Amino acid sequence: MSETLRSDVLEDQIDQWRGFVRRRRAIDAADVEEMEDHLREQINDLEAGGLDHEEAFLVAVKRMGNLDEVSREFAREHSHRLWKQLVLVPEADDGAGGLARWRDLGTALACALGAGVAVKLLFTLVDGDMALVRNIAFAVLPFLAGWFAWKRRVTWRVCASVAAVALVPALAVNLYPFEATPGPYPVPGMTAVLAFTHVPVLLWLLVGVLHTGGAWRSHDRRMDFVRFTGELVVYLALIGLGSMVLAGLTFGVLALVGVDLEPFFEDWLVPFGLPGALLVGAWLVEAKKSVVENIAPVLTRVFTPLAVLMLLADLVALLVNGPLTTVDRDLLILMDAVLVLVLFLLLYSISARDPLAPAGVFDWLQLVLVGAALAVDAVALTAMLTRIAEFGFTANKTAALGLNLVLLVHLVWSAWLMAGFVRGKRPFAAVERWQTAYLPVYAVWVGLVVLVFPPLFAFA
Question: What pLDDT was estimated at residue 81?
Fold first, then answer.
């Protein structure tokens, strides 16, 4: 092999090694350069000792040690970096990277302001609570989608396609002749409730297309969106709790001096604060990935055993509640909510896991979690089929039945793949890939509930 070709091959190997090291959370760019210099010195010494470049590279990488251990060591030695990463914006001398972060923040705040104005206009121009409910997502999420389109440099063709798809449910929920229940205080019928509650989910999945930069077929990009969603929920919970404490204290203090903040709260704080929290939370997730990703494994390890106990208690409640035909409808709806929550926890756990790590105790616990969810789903599904056989199909029963079937397929195959992984029969990548491959099924199902169910059940 010529010297030039050998050098090119070696550089390619070092590039791959450098890319892998850069993904370690505790190792920054300066650390990578330092480690690379050390690696090159090791390679040169080994080549001088008679090894060829491939052997020298492999031996040198082996001598560098396990990267997980190296990452933990760097974290211990440079723990002060965590606090620097938590600063909202970079130092003034951070160069182009700092300017990019300032630009991202400015654009996110501008989108938050735009979303606040849109919500304020919606509150001002639209009469009726249900009109607000059906349109609030269309007022807020386009600004988040626009921020992702700008940040990911999504092409106009993709943006136009997403906007065209989003226009269909927007027209449907506003133009469908939904019927209200009779009586002195009419409320929307079940098809309207189903459409209004499923529209935000459909729009969120469309936002995910722009989050992926238009590469929605990429499994890695889809998993990034799953991870983003989980981390955003964490941030929004923290922002919400902090905001409630601050608002409560402010209301209490000003009430003592005779200042009533309720008009300001209803007219300005709610319309601008809620969409602002969403956009700022999204910016924080994007800006602080290296910090938040350290929280994800902790959260999943805390809540997974709790979720297992909750599912077992739910299973007992379903089994001892008498004949399946007498199971309360509200209980079945709550079971669906629990299963969706378990699904989110499963997705978040998978997104936070190192795919190269071997199976451990926690993976077995997750398999138990999926098994318990399957047992609950099977009982709930049996109860639903029994009720439908006795009382007939309705919009809400059909929606609940369809969701349970979609969840059943997802959980069954997840359990099969996870069982193979913990037994060493297949890689974890197969488990991860199934989660992202199945996401479009939820989009299709939600679209059916929003667009097809109302006319199918006569808008009742």
Answer: 45
Nearest in space to 321 (alpha carbons), one of 334, 308, 309: 334
Beta bridge partners, 188, equal 180
Q: What is the pLDDT of residues 238-291, one digit of tens each?
A: 888 888 888 888 888 877 777 777 777 877 888 888 888 999 999 988 876 645
Asked if 275 and 265 touch (Cβ cutoff 8 Å), the reply is no
* DSSP structure string for 208-269: HHHHTTT-TT-HHHHHHHHHHHHHHHHHHHHHHHHHHHHHHHHHHHHHHTT---HHHIIIII
Task: Name the residue among 107, 448, 148 with its Cα closest to residue 99.
Answer: 107
- Shortest CA distance to 421 belongs to which of 343, 354, 374, 373? 354
Q: What's the pLDDT tens digit per position in 337-390?
A: 778 888 888 888 887 777 767 888 888 888 898 888 888 888 888 877 877 777
Would you state the structure tokens that stand for residue 114, as one six-digit string?
């735009």
Question: What pLDDT does residue 311 have?
Answer: 83
HEC string of 160-183 equals HHHHHHHHHHHHHHHHCCCCECCC
Tokens coding 310: 């909750």
Q: pLDDT per residue over 81-96, tens digit each?
A: 444 444 444 444 444 5
Please, which residues bridge with residue 402 across strands?
Answer: none
Helix, strand, or coil here: 78? coil
| Token pair belonging to 278 | 């969403």
Own/partner long-range contacts of 190-193 (Cβ < 8 Å, ≥24 apart) = 190/394, 190/395, 190/396, 190/457, 190/460, 191/395, 191/453, 191/454, 191/457, 191/459, 191/460, 192/130, 192/454, 192/459, 193/396
At 321, list the tokens: 């509640």
pTM for this structure? 0.75
Q: Which of 280, 261, 373, 384 is nearest to 331 (CA)?
A: 384
Q: Residue 188: what are its φ and ψ, rounded to 5°?
A: -60, 145
Q: How far apart are CA 229 and CA 255, in angstroms?
A: 38
Nearest to 226 by CA among 450, 442, 453: 442
State percent of the chain over pLDDT 70. Answer: 76
